[in-house]
Every structure is written in structure tokens, then in C-alpha cells.
Amino acid sequence: MFGINISKKIFIITLLIFAVLITSFALTYNMQLSNFLTLEEADTLNDVERLQNAIYTQQGYLDNMVQDWACWDDTYRFIEDRNQEYINVNLQNETLAGVKVNIMLFINETGSLVYAKSINFSTVEEKPVPEELLKLVESGQLSIKSEDDVIRGYVLLDEAPMFISCHPILTTKYEGPVKGTLVFGKYFDDDVLSSEENTDSSISILRVDEDLPPDFQGKFQQFTEAPDSTIVEPLSKEVIAGYFGLMDISGKSAVIIRTDFPRILYLNNENTLNYMYFFLLLTGLVTGVGVKFALDNFFVSRLIDIDNFVTKVRSEKDLSRRLPLEGNDELYRLSREINGMLSEIELAEQELKSQEREKKVLLDSLNELAIFVDPDFKIIWANKAALEHMKIDLEKAKGMCVKTTPDINGSLFGHMQLEKIFNSGNKESGEFSLENGTYWFVQAIPVTDDSGKIIGILGTFRDITERKAIEKLLQEKQVAEIANRTKSEFLANMSHELRTPLNSIIGFSDLLCDQIYGKLNEKQLKYTNNISKSGKHLLNLINDILDLSKVEAGKMELDYREFELADRLNSVKSLLSPIAARKNIKIEINVNKDLTTICADEARFVQIMYNLVDNAIKFSFENNPVRIEARRKGEFLETTVTDIGIGIKPEDQHKLFQPFSQVAAFSSKKFQGTGLGLSLVKQIVNLHGGYVWFRSIPGEGSTFAFAIPINGNKKD
Known about the structure:
The chain has 716 residues and is α+β, with helices and mostly antiparallel strands. Among the domains are: 61-193, Beta-Lactamase (2-Layer Sandwich), CATH 3.30.450; 366-463, Beta-Lactamase (2-Layer Sandwich), CATH 3.30.450; 470-543, no CATH class; 559-714, Histidine kinase-like ATPase, C-terminal domain (Heat Shock Protein 90, 2-Layer Sandwich), CATH 3.30.565. Helices cover 48% and strands 21% of the residues. It has 17 helices and 22 strands. The chain has helices at 6-70, 73-81, 84-90, 93-99, 131-139, 190-193, 214-225, 264-316, 330-364, 384-390, 394-397, 418-424, 465-513, 522-553, 565-581, 602-619, 677-687, and strands at 103-108, 113-120, 125-126, 151-156, 161-168, 180-187, 202-207, 230-234, 239-247, 253-262, 369-373, 379-382, 428-433, 439-448, 454-463, 560-564, 587-591, 597-601, 626-633, 636-643, 691-697, 701-709. The chain has a six-stranded antiparallel β-sheet, sandwiched between helices. It has a five-stranded antiparallel β-sheet with strand order 12-11-15-14-13, with helices on both faces. It has a five-stranded mixed β-sheet with strand order 17-19-20-22-21, with helices on one face. Strand 19 (626-633) and strand 20 form a beta hairpin.
């Protein structure tokens, strides 16, 4: 926080305090919400318990009803004689509807069904007994053998779950033996759940033998393990649900009931809590803003004014400014001391300026490096150029000994014998070269006072490196031109001297080969043929050297004329086809239809193509074609020669087009050559105003190409 101003620091501290308050409020808020959740869960459990009590009350009513009917002498006799009077009097539809029983089943002691009746007590109409109940009767699951035994629970019928209560049939005095079993059943529907306690809730009933929604599936497992348990959990921000199960006649879960209640208690408490904590946070925020405003207004703003004032004085270097004085506290005393310090600094600065003004004008008016030293060789003054050369400012340079000053000791002043100058009083000057390659003109002038005493030496230094470099370049250029001219003349003379005897050797050897002067045996003919070939090879080499010398000497002139492009390419093909045939190489030519004639030096064009195609044949693999392609590219003719051969390694490619230079793969005895062909190609193409290029992949082949103006010297 060292780079932050006080106002921001106070703001950050206020924010930290506010953050601590928010954290405390958040923890307290969460604790209160947790308490509200606990209260809400307890309240929901009470509501679920009321619903359970309503269901259990109706189940108890059915239990009492079946017990009253089962422990009745008339029922006891009816199982034995099945008299019609009992049915007519007691088993009418209206009777069952009055007691709100959907089904009555009379089963004798052997488990056989004596009588069954099923009605819809809402419509008082008789309906068939569900097949599922009849199967339970046949299986004996609803039969009671003991006087103290009862069967009660839910049966999952296709129509709806049904609560059944089974009681042994006894006499009115509850005496046996047991004559059979009386079964009362009532469908579990909305009427069962309708009561005053449940008007503010939504109830869902799901059977366990059907697909359960996701929120019921987990509850089914819990009710399987603990059938009498009750589960409460929130469904959403507005609704909380209670789950409980109802068991079948075997004691397993048969029906799961979910009752939904609005979260009035939780939401009201949460809103109250929100309002309370919002008020507390707002109070904290207002308090923090008020405290910061008070600190800024009475303390920080005055410090900022002082800081801005000092910064402005330092940047503008205006020492005449003064801080306004107000109050009578520590900040007032600080302002007063700053004003006093500024007054003292202003006086001292005025004195220094008056002393340095003349020196600065004198030193900075010089273009050269200028350094004035006293008899102890310490720097008194230095101009701007010297300070920049030494990479220091004037204040740091003052008092430094020139023998330890960077870029001066041992280089410039080191060449001047200062002690001798102080003793003799004579001016010294000279040119010196330094280890870094720079050249300087150094001059040392003694400075005397009115009495003639030497009080110092003014040294001036001028960098003459550029002038020396120009002089050296001119000398080197003259030497190079003389050497190049001598070399070209020597090569031209030597080539001329060699060509005359070579022509004689070639001529006479050809006559001998033709056997003009008599028959030669096989060995003589072979040797004579070798003399002719070697002479012609040497003559071509000399011609190449002569051409290269002419180009370098600027004496080669081009003979521009129009000629048929395809004819010249075919003539090159004809010349080199015998050489290509030795490696079973086919020369293919492809010329664009829009190219017919070009204007160039015909002989030199043929020389270019001969060198490129000869090289392509020389370095191609056997049984592969050499392709020559010519196309128009703007105002230029672009010609490429492509081979499938050994290619050129990347590290050797820089040697191409250099005279007398061959890459490693070409310098073997297998590929003979002088290294002048590509150099001549480049020089001749450049004379035509064109350019050359190539691309090569080792082991795959190379493409050499050049471009020259189609219209030659007539393009203007």
C-alpha cells in the first residue's frame, strides 16, 4: 500500500471494515435461516401428523364397524344358514352407503366366500366385487382362524387402493368358536382425505406398484426400511412437502402420500430477516461513507493539497510559490516549515545559477567534446556533448579525475601528456585511433589567469572516424579497381594466347580422327579422339572464362534481335539429345501458345539454355525426363528447367551462381565441371535486365529458372 495515497488507504480500510460486517451479517443470516428451517420442519411435521390422524381415524372407524358386525349373533347364524332375511334387512345398498363401506365379504371357517357385496356409496349402486379381492379370498390371505387375530391394511386394486379390515365372526358376547371372517373395505380416495385440517394443503397419492416420480423413488426405499417414518423436505422456494407411507395387509408399504404446504412461516421470517439485515448494512454503509467524508474533509484533503503543492513546485521548478497557512495544528506547522525551506532553496539556487551561467554558455556552444580540468586533473566543467559521451550529468562529472572517467581515461586524455602541458604551457594536438576502431582529433589548450598562471587545461575532442572510413574506402576502391582490371586483362590475354594453339590441336586431331592422312589402328584412333575431346572441353572452359571476364569488366554487349522461341529451344534439345540418350533421359519442351517470338541476344539465350539443360541431364537419375517450360509472366518470359535427380542440400545452396564454386555433390569425379556455367547464366540474365532463382529438394530433384523481358531493349 506504499504507492497508494492516504484517501485511497482510508477507502480501502473502510471497505475492509464493511467486508467484515457483511461477513458477520452473512454468518448470522445463515444461522437464523437454519433456525427457521428447523421451525418450518417441525410445523410441517405437525401438519402431516394431523393428516395422518384424519386417515387413521377413518381407518379406526372402519375397524369398529367391522367388529360390531362380526360380533353379532345374527351374523354368526347367517354364516351357518345364509338366511335371506339377514340379507334383506341388513345388507341393502343403502345400508352400506350409510356406513360408507364399499365392500362386505362373508367368509366361512373353511375359507369359502359365503356372501359378497360391492357398491358405490356415492351413487348407492351395486357393482362387481374386484377380482383381486376374490383371489385374496381364494388364497386364504383374508381368513382369520383365531379369535384374537385381525387383518388390516391396504390392497392395491386396479380401480383404487382400498383399506380393508378383517375380523373373526363371533357371537355377540365375543365368544367362539370362530365361524369365519367378515371383511369390510373402503376405497382410498379424495373423500378419505377431505377434512377441515387439510384445506390449506395439496395432497398427492401414489401406489408403489406403479412408476413413481423421481422425488417419490427415494422415499419408497426409506419407507421400505422404516414404514412408520415421516419425511419432510422443501420442494421449492414457496412449497415444502411431507411424505408418509400406508402399509398393506402384509405390513409393507402400499401407498405413499405427499402433502404440500405453502412455506408461509419460512418466507415471512426470511423477509423479516432480509429487511433487518438490509437496514443494518445500509446503516453500516452510511456510517462508513460519513466517516470517510469527515476524514477526507478535515484531514486528507489538506494533506493532498500539501502533496500537490510540493509535486507542482518540483515539476515546474518554481520556488517562488508558497503554501497558504490555515489552522493551528500539526499540518499548519508542516506548511510553515515547507514555506521556509522553499525560501532558503530559492536563494541558494539563484546564487548557483549566476555562477554557472557563463560556464554553461561557453561549454555548450562547442560542437566538439570539451572538458576543462584543473592541475589535479579533476573535471571542473564539461559541455553537453562531453557529458553525453561519458553518459553522466554535470553534477556527477564535477570533481571526477579524468584518469578514472569512463570513455575518457586511457583513450582520449590518455594520449595527451597533461603533466608536460602544465609544465610547458604549450598547446598539444594530434589524431589518435582507439581500440574500438574510432578515430579522434584531440587538442589540449592551457588556460591561464590574469597573472599567467596555468589554472587548467581545456581539452577538445572531435570524432573523425567517418572521415577516416571514407578515406580508407576510397583507397580500397582504387586498389580493387586496379586489381580487377589487371585480373580481367590477364584472363583475356591468357584466354587469347591459349585459344590459338588449342584451335590447332583440335583441328589436327580432328583430321587424324577423320583419317585424312592415312589409316589409324584402334588404339591410335582412340587416343586421337581423346585429344580432340579434351581440347574442345578446354576451349569451352577458356570461352567461359573469357565471357565471365568480359561481364565483370563491363565489356560484354548484347546483340538484340527477334527470334522464334520454340526453334531455339528445339535446337538446344537437338544439341543435347545424344548426351541425354546415354542415360535414357527424354527432354520435354512445353511453350505457352501466346509465346512465339522474343527479342534478346539469341546466342546468349542459347548459351543460357545449354548450360541449364546440360546441368539438368548431368545430375538427373537415369530413365527420368528433363522438362523445359516457357510461359509469359507480365512483360517477362519465364523459363524453367526441371530435373528428377540428386538435388542440392540446403547447406550447399549458397555456393550456386558463384564462379569457380561447386557444391559437394557436384565436385566429385562423377560430375565434372568448372563451376562457371551457372555464374555465366546469372550474369547474362542480369545483363538482359532479368533475374534467376531455383528450388531443390535433396534426392528428388531441382528446378532452375530465369526471367528476361520479352521485348528486350525495344520495351521503351
